[in-house]
Amino acid sequence: MTDTAVLAELMTLVAPAKVLTDPASLQAYGTDWTRHYPPAPSAVVLPRTLEQVQAIVRWANRHQVALVPSGGRTGLSGAAVAAHGEVVVAFDLMNQIIGFDAVDRSVVCQPGVITRQLQAFAEENGLYYPVDFASSGSSQVGGNIGTNAGGIKVIRYGMTRNWVAGLKVVTGTGELLELNKGLVKNATGYDLRQLFIGAEGTLGFVVEATLRLERAPRNLTAMVLGTPDFDSIMPVLHAFQGQLDLTAFEFFSDKGLAHILARGDVPAPFETPCPFYALLEFEALNDEVAEQALATFERCVEQGWVLDGVMSQSETQLRNLWKLREYLSETISHFTPYKNDISVTVAKVPAFLREIDAVVSQHYPDFEVVWYGHIGDGNLHLNILKPAHLDKAAFFARCATVNQWVFEIVERYQGSISAEHGVGMIKRDYLHYSRSPAEIACMKAIKAVFDPNGILNPGKIFAPDHQ
Ligand code: S2G
Ligand code: ZN
User: Fold this and answer.
1) What pLDDT, in 10s, does the model give residues 316-336?
2) Which cofactors, if any, are listed as required (predicted)?
């Protein structure tokens, strides 16, 4: 724990009221959505300016204090957890949109801007920020960049990385780097901005981001299609991708749908019970596109890949269909799920799914397994629900025994053990299934360049050297 004299010095760097040490604040700011690790920060500091962030990092170097960056704390890998007496640097007070250029279609955000706030700002200016996911109502832009957040529109718009045109970061020595400055083209050596995107705050803290915006999509239309089995989902994807420019292609299982319908606030898409459901979305720019979608639906039915389906006819119905997918994470969170967030290239999904599902069914015969995810970009969310009679520790220990079988398959398919949720602490011990020893050595060398004293989010992505 950081001693009081050292903390007293910290208070001189920011408004004294912005260094919190009360138990409620330590508890709230020291954790994320994983709830795996008991939060134990020694303090929380809330800077208002990037200069204060620089001063905090220099202070931490002087006193060898570990810092953990904290945004919306919606992470699912423990990357924003302070479990070892670190000082949490929370960006809640750096929450302003400080620039916009309609010609460049760019917006300058402080790291504490809420994702939904950025999306609304873009819409107010006739544009669109196309990275979206279940937690966008509370996640922050800085954290989205730190984890290279993906979500439900990646098939068309890519990950957060695709939308970062400029980045200001404070490195582990307190140095301010202004990277790429919003340029579309800049062939002047290494694109250092990319190193900080997805680095989970281990190389530097995002203190300002210039994000690109896109034209607003028109007449978004969704379809939910019931399929008889896993194997039918990818032919459906290919059939529709051959005809339409999809903005989303998601899937969920019947168990997932059952949990959504049990809420009582979301209508069923149609009556036919199906083992799996695909949710796809496209811009119905004209009647011909909508007709093409219906014709493709008919062809999928003829091929036996689809049992039943529905197409949204209104904004309300579009939103209701999306609730079937977007409510899943929050709805099953009541069952303390053990989560896997895995990915392979799209072509490998059918064979990969079959192998993973066989291993999971064999090792978890008595647990409820809920599949859902962004199958259109090869990203699957495998959620094992905790039975009421098992305590969390016993359940998680039981699930972890299966990880090696699951991750061996991921490795064999050259997939990722963490498609979009990041490594943090939860996936740290499995990194080698997706990254080679040479890659890990390079990552550690890069860490040493930007954070030579190892004070930035130590223990995330890889174990700290001394542990
Ligand atoms: C999703 C959200 C977190 C989870 O819903 O796509 O990334 O795995 C997830 O429930
Ligand atoms: Zn996801």
Assistant:
1) 999 999 999 999 999 999 899
2) FAD
DSSP code of residue 37: S
Amino acid at 16: P
Question: Which pTM was predicted?
Answer: 0.96
Ligand 1 pocket mutation pick from 381, 418, 421 by most atoms within 8 angstroms of CB: 381
Q: Kindly indicate whether the domain formed by 220-329 is annotated with CATH number 3.30.70.2190.
A: yes
Burial (CB < 10 A; 0-12, 13-18, 19+), residue 72, is buried
Q: Does 329 sit in the ligand 1 pocket, CB within 6 Å? A: yes
Tell me if 134 CB under 6 Å of ligand 1: yes
DSSP-assigned beta bridge partners for residue 101: 106
Distance CA 224, CA 318 (A): 10
Q: Is the dihedral of CA 402, 407, 413, 419 positive or negative?
A: positive
- Asked: is 97-215 a CATH 3.30.70.360 domain? The reply is no
> What are the sequence ranges of the domains in the chain?
4-93, 97-215, 220-329, 336-434
Interatomic CA distance for residues 341 and 76, integer angstroms: 10
For 76-99, what is each residue's pLDDT tens digit?
A: 999 999 999 999 999 999 999 999
CATH of 336-434, one of 3.40.50.620, 3.40.190.10, 3.30.70.2740, 3.40.50.300: 3.30.70.2740
